[in-house]
Protein 1
Amino acid sequence: MEKKIALIRGDGIGPEIIVQAVKVLDQVARVYGHSFSYTDVDMGGNAIDKWGDPLPQAELEKCLASDSVLLGAVGGPKWNDVPGPMRPEKGLLRLRAAMEVYSNNRPAKIWPQLASASPLKPELVEKGIDFIIVRELTGGIYFGSHSTRQEGGQAVAEDILTYSAEEIRRIGRIGFETARKRKGRLCSVEKSNVLDSSRLWKKVMHELAGEYPDVVLSDMLVDNCAMQIVRDPSQFDVIVTENMFGDILSDEASMITGSIGTIPSSSLGATTRGLYEPIHGSAPDIAGQDAANPIGTILAAGMMLRFSFDMEREADAIEQAVSDTLDAGFRTADILSSTDCVKVGCTRMGEEIANRIQ
Ligand code: NAD
């Protein structure tokens, strides 16, 4: 199979981790007889420096012309003070909107080899952590209007949160479909005791429930959910929630699995072209030190093969190679918890995983 992949290396550790994912993809191509071609796309702080724009239209077009997009991470302190519309993250929001990827899926699953890296008590980890957060990605407060004005002699800031029933329905369906393929339990997370948008969210979810009698729907307020994720994560199968709540809860969920560096995510819409990335940011504190964990990005490449290219065996091979590499004792600094393990850098971790692709 021939596939065109747009690569957004981005800022900070982004370029380092993308190189490792490409190494693994190239090995998959060799072993399974595929041809992957790559097109580099400038986005984020580096694009601001080069083009004066976090995602110039010509760079965006390269993504839209590809079969899928693999992203490292964007942003960093260098661009903290640039004005709102020019911030690196704006490039990412523009990309998600243009690709119409409204569904972000983030697995929170603990690798048995990394159980000791979880900050939760062993008895909680032993009950199992294996759930998915389905997060709405192109609506809500991040996409509403933002303004700051002077009122009564002081600054007043406003961010607007809007959701239509249709926006909720289409992400709700992804939640139900995902639960149907798993253990059949869907938890809808909102703040319906305060927000109108959440009351509409809850109403639409319950309307949809009639179409999915095989899925058990439950409701949870977002503040309670944040607590339950650390109190007993084994209770969750699939969580479906709006953009900002999903952003926050998925970072929390990643932490209980050991390291933010190991978690991939996929963003999909109505077509098979997806946006795949690790869930972490550009980690400026460790950039350029060969210290980043590339596993999240490598697993994101695996998700791309599974969900966009229909390459199940190849995706399984990547997950198995990661597992075998962890079994062999290789650890980057962020997941190193035992002296029996071999501490490696980003490059070596990528090589060890690529060499185990079968
Ligand atoms: P971050 O995820 O970059 O880093 C948080 C902590 O986790 C840091 O200590 C970092 O060293 C560590 N970490 C992250 N990824 C790691 C990896 N692969 N291996 C080892 N350790 C890792 O979050 P932050 O510090 O809040 O943000 C830094 C920058 O990234 C900011 O400019 C932010 O806006 C941006 N950001 C970008 C994205 C994205 O591109 N999708 C997402 C989140 C944050």
Protein 2
Amino acid sequence: MRITVIGTGYLGAVHAACMAELGHDVLGVDTDEGKIAALAEGEAPFYEPGLADMLLRTVRTGKLRFTTSLADAASFGEVHFVCVGTPQLPGALGADLSHIEAVIDGLAPYVTRDCLVVGKSTVPVGTAARLAARLADRATEGVTANLAWNPEFLREGFAVNDTLRPGRLVVGVTSAADDAVLRAVYAQLLEVNTPYIVTDLATAELTKVAANSFLATKISFINAMANVCEAAGADVVTLADALGHDPRIGRGFLSAGLGFGGGCLGKDIRAFMARAAELGVADSVEFLHQVDAINSGRRKHAVELARDLAGGTFAGRNVAILGAAFKPETDDVRDSPALGVAVAILAEGANVRVHDPRALANARLAYPDLGYANEPEKACEDADVVLHLTEWQQYRELDPAMLLPVVRSPRMLDSRNVLPVGHWRASGWTVRSMGRANV
Ligand code: UGA
């Protein structure tokens, strides 16, 4: 099929490459000329395992092409996927829908053939219905331009796999014909029995927001338990393992530590609270305030634990930070818990040196005042305290004995609870964990 993917951020770039990989003829669209020029050469705009190869492959075969022109997109596509960002509004909880509205307004007048516009961005429930009316209003006379909603559940770091082998497909449609179009787009995934849920626009939009809210709640639940564990002398990792054996609970998203960050969970729960208030059901999602507060509390708690390890003050101390990305296997630093902690410690007068295997360039751009190092050992040189804040595999494999003579004082905070703490201690380190009183 002839598919356009509008927006080449994380979601758009991955979706475009994967649609081409599935055999469709794909045109990727973005207003950023530099980005489009690089993509047209097959260059991935960010680090995502498996994406660079796929981009290069699909660009070379001509299955994937790029443009900055919505007019070209309109004349090319039978299906238009809208993948632009919906960031948090500055100074408010709600989502900024201006990008998505601009796409609808920009595309509609050029549409000269019947087509289906499919929203993939995360939006407040009710947006799709509003955009459908806006699209119908602005489309050329005599042309049928319908709108469907098909939320995306991909995780950064696993985005290619999550798109080509999704756990489920959810489509919100207003007609059986639109459902048939989406079944044709995803025919290969349906052949391997991917669960396919057809529903209305509002339920489809809400599925995404509810999923992210549930995941955020699960993380904050276990982090609340981590606080209790520290107070009660218990171990949150064993607690999570024990809880996770109950299939009704499950072990996934029960890793306590520094809490969630990134471009999705935080902004999505806030936009959900804002939307629920508009709908008159603020009370029903009031608990999400607590989820958010528990989460930001983890960053503050990590700073306190680290200050304690540094001898009660950061003034003049050297602090090594392992990890800048908001989670491993990505170079994304949006709302990174690790950088949040780094900046707070810098503000208290420490010399902070940050290492990350992939995210240093983005971190430098976002926080030019922090110090950076290209190797973990360099970050740790003369450190009074080392903070393990993003759980890259590389850090799990560090040799504590080898690092011992590098630092000034062998003190470590393992905020992600994945280091072999016994081994570190046996090598002469003082190690604190988050939520593990006796480990
Ligand atoms: C999240 C959802 O998991 C995806 O399903 C969704 O499609 C995506 O948002 C989105 O809305 O686009 P992502 O932000 O890539 O995906 O990352 P997650 O794997 O969900 O991790 C989010 C944060 O939670 C990370 O900072 C991670 O370190 C933290 N986390 C995760 C924990 O602290 N504990 C856990 O047990 C799991």
